[in-house]
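A favour, since you know our C-alpha cells better than I do. What I am after is a single protein written out in full by you. Could you add the entry underneath, on a fresh line?


***
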Amino acid sequence: MLTHKLTLASLSLQEIKKFVQLQEGKVGTYGWNNVEDLAITPHEQQQLIEVRSHLINRDTTLMNEATIWSRAIYPLLLLAESNDIEAWAEIPLSAQYKTFTLEGVADGVLGRNVAGRLEAPYLVVVEAKRGIDASTPVYQLYGQLLAAARLNWELTPQNSVEIFGCYTIADTWKFLRAEIENIDTEQPTMRLEYSREYAEKLETETIFKILKTIVARYQ
C-alpha cells in the first residue's frame, strides 16, 4: 500500500484530517491539569523561584527563541525529571502508520531513558517560531503526538495510547492531552483535550505541577 510522507514542521490541518479521525475537544480543567492541590517540596519551590527570577524583569517578547528556550522552557522540563524519565532537546521523531509516515524533530521531550537513548516519549514540546513567516504550532504538535503515540505503541501495543504535548510561545505554555486509538489501522482516531494558556512569569508553579503530574502517570 502506498504511504504518504508527512513532514512535522509543515503539517496542515487538511493533511492530518486526510489520514486521521480528529476529535478536537474543549479548553478546560481535566484530571491531568487540575493541579491546585498538588504539593511540591521546599527544594522544588526554591528552584522554581530561581527560574522565575530569570524571567520576571525581562521582556520575553523581544528575546529570540534560543534564549527563551534556555531561560524559560528547558529549565522547567529539567525540574520535572523523575527516575529514568528525563528531559531531552532536539529529538528526531520518525513513525510509520499504515497509510502515512511522520518525520521531523521535537524541540523538547520528556521520556524514558534506556541505556543512553530516549525510548518512549511521553510529552513532546513545540517551541513556536515567530515572525511573519511563522505558522501555527498546533498542527505540528498534532503530528508529534501521533508520532510519539506510534513509537510507544510499538513498545507496548494496546487499544488506546495516551500522550501529552505542549507548545510554547515566548514564555507562555499550552498543554494538550491526546488519546490515539486504532493505531494499527488505515485511519486511526485522535481525541484531544486542551488546557488554557499559562504565562510562566506569573504561573511558574502551576506549569511545573502539570509537568510533574504528567511524569507521574508514567512512573
Q: What stands out?
A: The chain has a mean pLDDT of 94.
